Amino acid sequence: MFELTNRIALVTGGANGIGKGIVQTLAKAGAKVMICDIDEKAGKETAEEVGGEYYKLDVTDQRNAEQVVQDILEKHKRIDILAANTGIYPEVLIEDMTEEDWDKVQRINLKGIFNIIKPVLKAMKKQNYGRVILTSSITGDITGYPGGALYGATKAGILGFMRSASLEYAKYGVTINSVQPGMVATEGLKKQLETLSDKGAEVVPMKRLGEPKDIGAAVCFFASEEASYITGQSLVIDGGQVLPETPDV
Ligand code: NAD
């Protein structure tokens, strides 16, 4: 296990699903975790479970994000780790897609990253230390599905943002990387599988869906001292799903 004792971590979308797995794994490694989420009830429960703190945050609201960062900095003086994980993944075919659909998913998945990363990077630059991990998806640059164009566009956007941002902040002791989960068993995914009649775990070579803690482990690695020379990189965590198998010849 990586050692993160006394590190101050902020996790967006940390109340449920993958975010909760990230929170639990960071806390297990010793970090003090700030759970920032729009879901107050689950956010407070998760905070209590790991001895962390809950902050109400709607990532689409820039002022809200700035205030939350300011409140954390006033109390803890620093933010060492940011896991910007919030995202939604409604399925919508292009010909059914409205401008509202487009704007909503972009606002949460992509602008939501900008809203929280901007004030956090300002603090990390001053500290001359920081670890940022963004949650993208295998749908960002490897896979796709009908109804996933909008979601895929945001997740590809995260990868592009991450690469340039990592270069902008490398000289300030800040690393910026991303994780690309495959199918992870969360409430969000369960809803999607119901409507997709997907084969779920069957298409994964490991024959199981990912667990939130599988993603948490990768986030912990990027947050650790051991990963201090890695920046601008993305790690796929998918039980082998995207690996093309060599055909029998
Ligand atoms: P989830 O729906 O289970 O949890 C999402 C969390 O984000 C919830 O706690 C929710 O309250 C919070 N949230 C939603 N809108 C918010 C907002 N405006 N402001 C603040 N918080 C908000 O989702 P999940 O499956 O855990 O997915 C988490 C991330 O992982 C997303 O970015 C998703 O795209 C990505 N991802 C998930 C999978 C998967 O299979 N589950 C695969 C690849 C990538």
Automatic annotation (TrEMBL):
Domain of life of the native organism: Bacteria
GO terms for MF: oxidoreductase activity
Claim: rRNA-binding is one of the keywords in the record: no
Keyword vocabulary terms for this entry: Oxidoreductase
Enzyme Commission (EC) number: 1.1.1.-
Enzyme class per UniProt: oxidoreductase
PANTHER family linked to this entry: 3-OXOACYL-(ACYL-CARRIER-PROTEIN) REDUCTASE, 3-OXOACYL-[ACYL-CARRIER-PROTEIN] REDUCTASE FABG
Family: Belongs to the short-chain dehydrogenases/reductases (SDR) family.
Protein's UniProt name: SDR family NAD(P)-dependent oxidoreductase
Gene source species: Oceanobacillus luteolus
